[in-house]
Amino acid sequence: RHDVEMSNEAVAALYVSYLGNDYEAGAQRFSGHILRGNAELAWPIMAGHRLLLQGSYSFAHIDDAFQPGFGGNPDVDQNDINRRYYGISMQDQYDITDRLTVTAGLRFDHRDDLDYERITPRLSAVWRITDQHIFKAQYAEGYRAPTFWEIYPANTAIDIDPANIHTPDQAARRWQAIRPLAPLDAAAPGRERQRTTVRRDRRYTDSRKIATAGSTSDTGHHSSD
Question: Can you spell out the DSSP letters for 79-144?
Fold first, then answer.
């Protein structure tokens, strides 16, 4: 990660990550690597407006993957597969008053493995009624792309459309400090972790381990006019 504060109010950021996977358990195996990059630029374009531009890229190469079929489903048996993803988004945050903020945005996504493109909107409003009370309303659209295992059974790619997601939301809350928690599946590169699935009333742990390898780095640079 590299952050650059170009002025007192304009900020640019660049994130790059690499992850290599080599997994085998019984008859199932998977080896490959993923390269991800993300760039952001935020700056005030006029009084009360702050624009955010984001671009993202992901390249995944699967060297070898095999998963036996279950319940009548076909095996997954694939080699030398490439998956690329591109995304760009633009968002305008408008501070109408000191207590009312409206944010509108659009996002464009392209996935070459699915030959799929999508434009999704987002609109939200935040009203800070008092210093301790907040009201928020939001509408956003998105999608969930099928996983590698879902679209590549045997040696044939299946034409599966992504699932569309629509999320209207309203919330009124009293502000309180909450300590952030790490995701349940978070793992640092090079460490082994157990795969865990969590339900509201039960917790299941898969004793098989996943080996990951990769590198991350954090650097920063700040300068102002």
Answer: EEEEEEEEEEEEEEEEESSSSEEEEEEEEEEEETTTTEEEEEEEEEEEEE-SSSEEEEEEEEEEEE
pLDDT tens-digit profile of 13-60?
Answer: 999 999 998 888 888 888 999 999 999 999 999 899 999 999 999 999
d(CA 198, CA 203): 5
Q: Which domains does the chain have, with CATH numbers?
A: 2-175+184-220 (2.40.170.20)
Task: Kindly give, in sequence order, each residue whose CB lies less than 8 Å from that of residue 103, ignoring residues fewer than 6 positions away.
Answer: 91, 92, 93, 94, 122, 123, 124, 125, 126
Residue 145 and residue 118 in contact, taking contact as beta carbons nearer than 8 Å: no
Distance CA 87, CA 68 (A): 33
Could you tell me which of 172, 99, 107 has the C-alpha nearest to residue 140?
107
Neighbours of 84 (CB within 10 A): 13
pTM: 0.62
Instruction: List, for residues 86-104, the tens digit of each pLDDT value.
Output: 999 999 999 999 999 999 9
Angstrom distance (rounded) from CA 168 to CA 181: 25
Tokens 């944010």 map to which residue? 103
Contact 94, 47 (CB under 8 A): no
**CB contact set of 173 (below 8 Å; sequence gap of 6+):** 133, 134, 136
130 in the Ramachandran plot: left (φ > 0), alpha (ψ -120 to 50) or beta? beta
* Amino acid of residue 194: Q
